[in-house]
Amino acid sequence: MPHEDQLQVEHELETIDLNINIGPQHPATHGVFRMVIEVDGEVVTDVVPHIGYMHRGGEKLSENMDYRQAIGYQDRTEYLSQFNAELCYVLAVEKLAPALAPPERAQYIRIILAELNRISSHFMFLGAFGTDLGVFGTSFVYAFRERENLLDLFEEVTGDRLMYAYFRPGGVAWDVPANFKSRVEWVCEQALIGASDMDRLLTDNEIFIARTRGIGILSAEDAIDYGVTGPMLRASGVRQDLRKDEPYAIYDRFDFDIPIGTNGDCYDRYLVRLQEIRESVKIVRQALEQLPDGPILPERMPRLLRPSAGEVYMRCEDPRGEYGIYLISKGTTQPYRLRMRSPSFCNLSALRQMTIGHYVADAVTILGSTDIVLCSVDR
Amino acid sequence: MSPEDRRAEAPPAEPPAPPEGSVADLFKKALPGVEMQAIQGVNDVLLVIDRADARKVLEIAKNDETLAFDFLRNLTGVDFEADGMEVVYHLHSYTRRHDVTVRAKVSNDDAELASVSDLWKAADWHERECRDMFGINFTGHPNLVPLLLPEDMLDHFPLRKDVPLAPLEEWQGEQLGDNVAQAGYIPPGSGFNVQASAEGE
To answer: Which has fewest Cβ within 10 Å: A111, A374, B36, B97?
Structure first.
């Protein structure tokens, strides 16, 4: 336990153990999540997370659907990084159906949208994290102003603000609007301004540092053992990013850095995500420069998708970590088995490890720093 | 039942073997005498093993220096109906930078497999979810209670293939007859005419 000495002091005061129930409906749980906290005085001695309130059987439903219909379930599962989840799914289908190789233009559109989606997801984190600490309502408004720019752009491209279903095996559904380039450039500028606004508001703020530094430390070994991925793992000092390690799609064509932390506490997780916004802008700008003209789908698209029999485990770097699609095809029009490996699920399983020994108020900070999407946890 | 039979519908009946020097060779070297079938998958090398060897193979995968699989990417079950079930482990090594997929066969009648939650803490929740969805009993797991499903739902395994999806329910408003006005919102295109019903047709 990280704070053994604190626990000792509480014992001398002769406190009794108390169970506190947080959730399922609670503003700090980011969705329908319940945790039962056992406290001794103000120090947490045990955490039992209860999940499953949002379980809708997306895997089973996808097994009873056409390959293209299952795209929509990716949006509903990972509702803050829909493009990343869709990208993983369509890449998995394309691995089993090599004839559906996407044209260059579609590849670039996908990467631009997926990276912009990462920015919007991280802004959502920055805003929500500020309110989790209880004192930074301003950061929420700032972050949502930036996220709104991005959602407007996504709406112009796909016709929907949240449930895009825009990627297809083989490319994208339709071409982007004519003013796409100038719009993306403007959005990137705004995102950088927004990131520096957040930077000035939070990074050096004394209260923010007091509430986050040294809180919820997860060592690199524990993080790997629990299957934690993404910014949380990088905050613990492990240089891991699937975009660099196992470049999928066309990520090997871009030049960007992987920010990593040193302590693995809540403050490092915040810093890593803030820096990732800037790195994503870098990727988007490079992709925009290289964006070619041309078709957005292969010339011959089958009316019904029948990927060849086989299995594939496709993984992509989601804003929260490794998003995996384990797809088994039997050569029919429906997936035989579709498993979604959700990063939120694995990151949340380390909650107990991080929270024990901290104060109750910090439990909310730690939960906020994991940046979970409850729909993705429960699927 | 072998994977060849399972892929009977696919034109190439023989699954491709992994190239020389792949991670499958490291496994064979570390585990002499254990029967395993190695297949070159799309992304990773696949190893199909029997469930009696599962625990041994995974322990070696975690602890052997040349393998050193420290990261359990994913653990899930698959129901192959008549061919039994499989538990699939996707492993990755941060130190050696290689991947492998281990598939352990489990029979339908007594679905039991040794737990690996002491090897990777990540397996704890994955195994609980797998029990929820497929009813596979992971022996040695410290706390195998339902995770995603309700706590009393111990005999219903939704991701097994013999559990069908519920059919779409018909719109209940039709049963209201003349009281249809009380039904509230009537979806357009439901084929139900409010006016006609109110007039008693």
So the answer is: B97
